[in-house]
Amino acid sequence: MKILTPSQLHKADQYTIEHQKISSWELMERASLAAVEKIKAILKAPKPVTVLAGSGNNGGDGLAIAFHLDQLGYEVEVLVLKYTTEYSKDCKINFDRLQAKTEIKVEEFTEDSNIESLNFKPVIIDAVFGIGLNRALPEFVEKVIKKANHAQALRIAIDVPSGLFLSKLTPPQSIVFEADYTLTFQCPKLNFFLPDYGNALGKIQVIDIGLDKSFINKLDSDFEFVNKKYIDGFYKVRHRFSHKGDYGHLLVAGGQYGIMGSVSLTAKAALKSGVGKVTVLSPQCGVEILQHSVPEAMVIPSDDIEQVSPKHLNFKPSNICIGMGLGQSKLAVKSLTYFIRLSKQPILIDADGLNILSKNKNLFEDLPDQSILTPHQGELKRLIGEWGDQYDKLDKMKKFSRQYNIILVSKDAYTFTVYDDQVYINSTGNSGLATAGSGDALAGIISSFLCQNYSPLESSILGVYIHGKAADFYTTSNSELSLTASDVINCLGKTL
Ligand SMILES: NC(=O)C1=CN([C@@H]2O[C@H](COP(=O)(O)OP(=O)(O)OC[C@H]3O[C@@H](n4cnc5c(N)ncnc54)[C@H](OP(=O)(O)O)[C@@H]3O)[C@@H](O)[C@H]2O)[C@@H](O)CC1
Ligand SMILES: Nc1ncnc2c1ncn2[C@@H]1O[C@H](COP(=O)(O)OP(=O)(O)O)[C@@H](O)[C@H]1O
Ligand SMILES: [K+]
């Protein structure tokens, strides 16, 4: 799903209104009715609701939602934060309808109103600002939102949590409505996925309001939100008459004394995602551990007891996955250099492999095109250097990917896969993944797809999606707190 900017969304609104021959009010009504359906599903039964509405079109949505909830028997009160002297045209229509056709108590607030005694119902719907916010919130709006954030209530934002900027970064220390749910129209917005205010969004639900698809398809966007539909576009099924040789042979190189769990997780995750064969190049001390923990994998001992060392292979791996538990000793540098030079196919480098790369930029010259690097945010910083703000980081990642022709999988709460100026934002996963070893599992999953003839970009996008989805699968019946990397691996079967 393409991620569009506010100005593209405004254009898509206009185009849709003209070509579907509907009024802007009818489009607003369509959006609001769809939002009401989501609210009903979230609340399960009618509960008292406070609607905070602005005086623009986001406010218009809020007033329409208030109207329809009232018709459904919800107890509704409306607070209009009138930050402009006039209502927008459609907002005014909905304001008048509310006055004419319902008993709802509507209070108007302006700069001069006393908001100290404000109280909220157990559900607060925020429709103060949407994609139109372009400067700091008026002071009285800030105060109301701050109060709403402190209220004992379930908070639902319509389109965008008020206070969150979209055309630029939200200034630090801004007040933003802290939503439990954000019901956003047509597509998610880029700033939802940046860490600065990411916690303010709660669960994001995208509402298709039927904006013209052909128009949207023609719009340029550097950002894709990777959902199931996107994955279905390239996911492969296995043929009945196939054998393990058709699904590749992965070499995993890594681990050292005391850190053998890393490669063990990588190898297991690769096998559970369908790779034909896995061989692990291990320090001698890890051979028995691996043979016990992953009996399906073959193991080759290094010449060194405690670390991986360069080794002549008597087979040709389809792809190599290297770096987890590798360490950064002289021998580790030698091993990474050896395997990068040996590899003619894209290689996946993770963890210590990335730290070695950061300090030995000459190694990039030998990296096969479209190799995959999977840094977490600390490793990313070492690779691309410190960034200013999040937009600067995006620019730096794109530049880095272009400079070395590599795929950068920037791991975070929302993982961004960057290649060729395009950014693929993953939609799956949860905070349970913030646990040791989950990155090792991810490296195995991506490498496995690479061996199964997905392109390096597809392997990265698919691997990240499946890894997150497996974690989501686990947390449908377990707490995020108890998720381990092994749980992710155990859930791969059902997820796939
Ligand atoms: N047909 C459609 O288009 C549909 C639209 N839909 C809904 O409309 C929402 C977008 O509506 P919107 O464009 O009116 O923007 P909104 O966020 O309500 O702001 C209103 C105005 O406030 C102003 N302003 C900005 N910052 C300010 C500030 N700090 N302090 C004071 N004023 C400030 C700024 O105007 P300006 O002053 O810059 O001229 C801005 O235009 C969208 O999110 C969705 O909910 C859906 O119903 C689907 C159909
Ligand atoms: N809060 C979070 N929400 C979703 N995914 C997360 C979160 N925190 C971490 N992750 C994911 O967990 C993985 C952690 O990787 P990494 O830090 O390399 O772990 P390790 O080195 O312990 O294996 C990444 O895929 C990252 O995107
Ligand atoms: K809003």
TrEMBL record:
Residues at which AMP binds: K411, D412, A413, Y414, T415, G439
Cofactor note: Binds 1 potassium ion per subunit.
UniProt-annotated binding residues for (6S)-NADPHX: 57-61, 130-136, 159, 325, 376, 440
Keywords, comma-separated and alphabetical: ATP-binding, Isomerase, Lyase, Metal-binding, Multifunctional enzyme, NAD, NADP, Nucleotide-binding, Potassium
Cofactors named for this entry: K(+); Mg(2+)
Role description: Bifunctional enzyme that catalyzes the epimerization of the S- and R-forms of NAD(P)HX and the dehydration of the S-form of NAD(P)HX at the expense of ADP, which is converted to AMP. This allows the repair of both epimers of NAD(P)HX, a damaged form of NAD(P)H that is a result of enzymatic or heat-dependent hydration. Catalyzes the epimerization of the S- and R-forms of NAD(P)HX, a damaged form of NAD(P)H that is a result of enzymatic or heat-dependent hydration. This is a prerequisite for the S-specific NAD(P)H-hydrate dehydratase to allow the repair of both epimers of NAD(P)HX.
Gene source species: Mesohalobacter halotolerans
Residues annotated to bind K(+): N58, D126, S162
UniProt similarity note: In the C-terminal section; belongs to the NnrD/CARKD family. In the N-terminal section; belongs to the NnrE/AIBP family.
EC number: 4.2.1.136, 5.1.99.6
Name this protein carries in UniProt: Bifunctional NAD(P)H-hydrate repair enzyme
HAMAP family associated with the record: NADHX_dehydratase, NADHX_epimerase
Gene, per the UniProt record: nnrE
Known catalytic reactions: (6S)-NADPHX + ADP = AMP + phosphate + NADPH + H(+); (6R)-NADHX = (6S)-NADHX; (6S)-NADHX + ADP = AMP + phosphate + NADH + H(+); (6R)-NADPHX = (6S)-NADPHX
